[in-house]
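Support request, please re-run this one:
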Amino acid sequence: MTLATLNPSDKTTLASKQAAQAAAARESVQRIDEFAAQLKTMVRSAAQDAESFDQTERSVRDAMRKMGNLAIELFIQLQGDGDLGETIVTQDGKTLHRSESAKLSFGP
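Re-run finished. Output below.
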């Protein structure tokens, strides 16, 4: 269910932003896939080369931290920045305008 509709003037800008975000997300997915393939190769090589368990575990943990960072980067790209333009129109027809300054509230 859509809560609001974009003003026509904001649709083009939003569409181009979304296209750029989608392209960045596809790139991130590709990097994660490539990283996973490298990790499998690393583990196979470690087994074939009789690397110590300790060294292999450290290498895998480091790699997983890096992959986690890539996954969080992808998550942020998929979420977008939340910018819906200067105005939006709610389902009941009310036009909402972006505030001139960001208001952050922490606590009561």
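The mean pLDDT is 84. DSSP finds two helices and three strands in the chain.
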